[in-house]
Amino acid sequence: xxxxLQAIFDTVFLEPVALTPAISAKDVPEWDSLTHISLMVxxxxxFNVRFRVGEVExxxxxxxxxxxxxxxxxxx
Length: 76
What we know:
76 residues; mainly alpha; 0% strand; globular
């Protein structure tokens, strides 16, 4: 999951971001609200999922975000 997310991050962010399960938006200076929207759209498209309002904000880091993606992928 991290490797797939890394590929998406590499296309969205100008500066390289080395993803780990513990990294969060506050750890990436370029991760602002507009970049966040672009990132969420790219993730939804890449994984063919849709996030509910507020649930992404509840993920504290990339590890929890990965878990959320997996959860959405398992839904019918």
